[in-house]
Specification:
Length: 233
C-alpha cells in the first residue's frame, strides 16, 4: 500500500546575509522566485504529495501576490511560522492531514534531486527517520572551548554535513515535537534523536545547496541555466 506523503517547506529567512530587503526565498532566479523552484521539485517527484509552506505571518501577503504575478497554481497549504525553526516546523505539523511520511525541507534548497528525495522517503518508510548527508571533503579542525587560538585536527571520515529533506514516519515526528524547545535543536533530526529515535543516513546530492549568501545566489543562477542540473532533477 502506498503511504500518504507530506512535505513541510520552511521558509522563514529574511535575507539579511544577502544584503537585500527581499527575503532570499523570494528572490527571482531563472524567471521565478527560488521558493517556487523548491516547491516544484517535490511536485515533479510526486504530484500527489501534500504540500505545507511555513512562512512568517507578515510574508504571507507578499507570497500570495507573487503567486498571482507568476501564475503559480501548485496546490499548497499555508502555515504561520514561529520564533525559531523548531516552532515553525511545529506549526507546519498541524497541517499534515493524514500523511504517514513527513518530509521537512528548507525553502532555499531548490536543487534537491529526485534521487535524494526518493532515497530519504524510502529509508524513512523502512527505518522511521532518514536524513541526506554528504562526506566532508575538506580538512576540519576543532577550536578549543576556552582558547579559540588553539585547535586540533579531526578525522573528516567520521563526519558528515547534513541537508534536507529530513523525512520521518508521522508518529515519530509528531511525538518528537511534543518535547519542549531546546537550543540544542539545530534541525529536525536533533529533535527526533532527543526523543530517543535513531536516524538513518542517506547519500545527498552536492547540488542541494542552501542559498544563504550572494555567492550561493550566483551558483544558483549557474545551476538553473545549466544542462547538468536538468539531469539531476
Amino acid at each position: 500500500m502506498k503511504l500518504k506523503k507530506c512535505v513541510i517547506i520552511v521558509a522563514g529567512g529574511r535575507g539579511l546575509r544577502m544584503g537585500s530587503d527581499i527575503p532570499k526565498q523570494f528572490m527571482v532566479v531563472a524567471r521565478k522566485p527560488i521558493l517556487m523552484h523548491t516547491i516544484e521539485n517535490f511536485m515533479h517527484w510526486d504530484p500527489t504529495i501534500r504540500m505545507v509552506l511555513v512562512l512568517p505571518e507578515n510574508h504571507i501577503p507578499y507570497w500570495e501576490s507573487l503567486c498571482h504575478q507568476y501564475d503559480f497554481k501548485t496546490e499548497h497549504h499555508l502555515a504561520v511560522g514561529g520564533e525559531t525553526r523548531y516552532h515553525s516546523v511545529k506549526s507546519g505539523l498541524k497541517h499534515i492531514g493524514d500523511a504517514q511520511l513527513i518530509g521537512i525541507h528548507d525553502g532555499v534548497r531548490p536543487f534537491v534531486s529526485r534521487q535524494t528525495i526518493e532515497g530519504c522517503f524510502r529509508a524513512a518508510e523502512e527505518e522511521g527517520a532518514a536524513i541526506p548527508v554528504l562526506q566532508v571533503v575538506e580538512s576540519i579542525r576543532k577550536i578549543e572551548e576556552n582558547n579559540p587560538s588553539r585547535s586540533i585536527s579531526l578525522p573528516r571520515t567520521q563526519y558528515r554535513t547534513v541537508q534536507t529533506p529530513q523525512v520521518f514516519q508521522s508518529i515519530i515526528i509528531q511525538k518528537a515535537y511534543e518535547l519542549p524547545y531546546s537550543s540544542r535543536f539545530t534541525d529536525d533530526a536533533s529533535v527526533v534523536e532527543a526523543a530517543g529515535y535513531p536516524v538513518t543516513l542517506v547519500e545527498g546530492n552536492r547540488e542541494n545547496i542552501k542559498i544563504t549568501t550572494p555567492m550561493d545566489l550566483e551558483i544558483a543562477r549557474l545551476l538553473l541555466n545549466s544542462e547538468s542540473y536538468q539531469g539531476i532533477r
